Each structure stands twice: as C-alpha cells, then as structure tokens.
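[stage:ingest] chain + small molecule (fe (ii) ion)
[stage:ingest] validated
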Amino acid sequence: MTGNPLREVCPGLYVAEAKQRFYGLEVGARMTIIQHHGTLFVHSPIAISPADVAHLGTPGQVLAPNLLHHLYVGPWIDAGYEGWAAPGLPEKRKDVHFHGVITPGVQPFGEDIEVLPMACFAMTNEVVVLHKPSRTLLVTDLVFNLSPKAPWMTRTAMRCLGGYPGCNVTLLEQVGMKRDVARRELGIIAEWDFDRVIMAHGEIIETGGKETFFQAFQWVLIGT
Ligand SMILES: [Fe+2]
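[stage:predict] done
[stage:export] tokens:
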C-alpha cells in the first residue's frame, strides 16, 4: 500500500482501511491501532506494513480477533509485536507463533483494554475489545454496518442475508449462534461503557453506538 493509510478517529486511536473480498463480495476491511502507554495495540491487521505505524509508537501487541481475520498478522509478529489469537486460531494457523490465546478471564492488555472471547458463534470465535479511554467497542464480523457507498452487488447480497441496510447481524449468525451463550456474553458487553463502535466492515458508528449495537441483537435478546 502506498501513501499514508492511517486515519485518526480520536486522540490515540487510528484506523486503516483497504479493499477486501469475502466469497467474491467486496466488503472492505478495517484495522484499528491504539496508542497504549507509548506502545501500540493493533486489532485485526490489514495488508499494511508495520513500518507505516512506527511513528505512532513502539510495537506492543497485535490481536487476530477471530478465525477469519488472521491473514496479515504474521508481519506484525515478525516486527516485534506480541501476537494474540482468538480461540482455535493457533490450530488453524500453525505457521504463526502466537504468544497467547484470549480465553475467558484473561485480560492481557492492561486496565484500558478489556477483551471478551465470544463462544456463541463457532464459525468465528470472535474476541470483542473495549477501549475504555475512548469508550470504543471494537468488533470484527459480529456486526456489519455497510453504507450505500458499498458496491451494488455487496449491498444486494447483504440485503438478502439480512445484513443491509444499517448495523446488523447477518442471517448466517442468526442461524448458527448459540442463543443462550450469546445472551450471556451480550450481557457482559451490556455492562461495558462505550459510545463508539468500530467494526471491520462498514461505517464506524461515532456516537450512539451502544444502542445501535444492541438493536442489532434484538432477535436474540427479545424476551430476555
Ligand atoms: Fe470479516
């Protein structure tokens, strides 16, 4: 990638975006970089070089946050970042030497960054992240928020999957999610204080994100 791929979302929090296809659909992909006590926490890296963010801080940790978002984690570990994986990912990526796996109760990133490994959807085993100072929730494939700027084919397919328009969980998750587990895990997220939601695919929700996020889960939360 050429040029400066970074965009500052708020002080200490940056994103970089790139084109990304999934099953032939252009869905884009976003990574997030958090300045964290002089080091960098990298969430869901895309195909940029660690050198592109070196001016922001020294290598800290890189998180491959689910079983689908791991393609570009290797160069960050090679650059000196401590690699952390979603549950099950080390078995899938035996070529990558991870420092650790996010498991329930493990909080390896200090007080400002809280993580929750979600066991409700085995296709992704997603780890969601709360950045407390910026009141930001980082998710990967848990919800989509595609805009009208997305390609027509992507919008059409996602509409059929219940993932467009707006912030949504697709029918894929709705069918495959263990609902009792999801309710328990969403209950933990409900206790978190956040206003912004950054997802890997779609538009960042700058404010009101907590309400919007939980509206996307009404299908599982209704009646609880
Ligand atoms: Fe994804």
